[in-house]
Amino acid sequence: MQIAEKLYTRGYISYPRTETTQYPTNFDLVGVVKLLQHSSEFGDEAKSILHDMNSPRKGNDAGDHPPITPMKLASRNELDGGDTFRVYDYICYTKVMTWQAFAKNELVVPFIVNEKVKINDVRLVESQTGPPDYLTESELISLMEKHGIGTDASIPVHINNICQRNYVAIGGGRTLTPTNLGIVLVHGYQKIDPELVLPTMRSAVEQQLSLIAHGSADYRSVLKHAVEIFRLKFLYFVQNISNMDILFEATFSSLSSSGKALSRCGKCRRYMKYIQSKPSRLHCSTCDETYTMPVKGVVRVYRELKCPLDDFELLAWSNGAKGKSYPLCPYCYNHPPFRDMAKNSGCNSCPHPTCAHSLTLLGVSSCIECDRGILVLDCTSSPKWKLVCNFCDVIINCFDDAVKVNVEAESCDECGAQQVTAIYKAEKTPFKDDITEKKGCIFCFPDFVPLVEKHKAVEMRRGQGGRGRGRSLRGRGGKSGRGRNKPPKDKMAQLAAYFV
Length: 500
Prior knowledge:
Layout: H1 2-9, H2 29-36, H3 43-51, H4 82-92, H5 137-146, H6 155-164, E1 168-170, E2 176-178, H7 180-192, H8 199-213, H9 219-239, H10 241-252, E3 260-264, E4 271-275, E5 281-284, E6 289-292, E7 298-306, E8 313-318, E9 325-328, H11 330-334, H12 359-362, E10 363-366, E11 374-378, E12 386-389, E13 395-398, E14 404-411, E15 418-423, E16 437-440, E17 452-454, H13 456-463, H14 491-499
Antiparallel strand pairs: 1-2, 3-4, 4-5, 5-6, 7-8, 8-9, 10-11, 11-12, 12-13, 13-17, 14-15, 15-16
């Protein structure tokens, strides 16, 4: 655009910043072509056009300046050759594009239908797909025009700004290569408010400005509406700026090379690094993605199991030997896959109908203390098995040293909780008849009652006036609704919950 503006100020071409591609009916095209017929570069083509000149095809009249048009003849030496003459040549020479034409030593073979041609060589080439190339300046301009971002006068300014601010760098072939700063900024905006980096945001403002220009909208109303939107977005952005800090810290500080390899990313299948310093997080240097992790506690790989939704390796979080613990998927923890799953939740809050680690298959009953939580079997704690509320701090230790504990589809007729099966080795079975496997309700089955105990942290809560003080586990049984809020076990209900 700088070269085009120089040609314009020197009188060689018309005003270059225009969106119009249609000539007015009174435009003297013949006079323009006559100017070029004496050119040593393309004079013959100009004479040929004058001999049999057709009306140009219809274009778009944007109501600004006419299409870019040569205004006087220039020679290669006059414009010092190089890029200046190339731009001028591109504007004039539309009959034959030299870089698209056949070379003089190439022949166009006149093939005939059903003709047999001798094949010189047959090859099977092995290759693999790759990412698309970076956008060139011209491709970016086309996309900006498509989405209604900027005008002919402002588009080059926008591109120049992102270059000067080091968001992108100009690469070979005039491609725009994002810098680390640009990538981190975009990822940060996507974490906080994705609308800020979508083309629809700027496009919507441009459309409202067009309505003002055409007298279809009131200037003050549009201004008030736009300012209020950006005021609220600014306040929300400031409140969540820590998400941006995490990305900058991981990219531009020594943290990008610190941490220890912990689990595989579900996107690139490479190991992510676990950074334990607050706020703890996982960072994938290949995908340049950062995933927040639970505060405090210990995070470890959970038997190299994978989430069926995104292929990320599951992790087990624990708040100590006698504290809460649960498995979690790093991606689902940051991006909940279901509407009724809160952010920063583990698998014990996931309603996936078939995943072996989900609330749906491991939920036993509604919590005995709070109204919102569900007691979920914690398989990460084996052989120290326990039920953990996915909302409050209730923990129920059970079936110590059992080889396996399963949550069954059948529910208890007395209290509505899901039945469980406990399996022991012969030398460690606690059952009086030396049977190694029994199934029943964890609250009502007499053989299970001695094997179940509450965590003492809950007793501390009771001492502070918590609900249900002094009642035993079994004493809270009956049909008081322990099964209330428990996930459905019926397969059709599971599918309905999954799709809805």
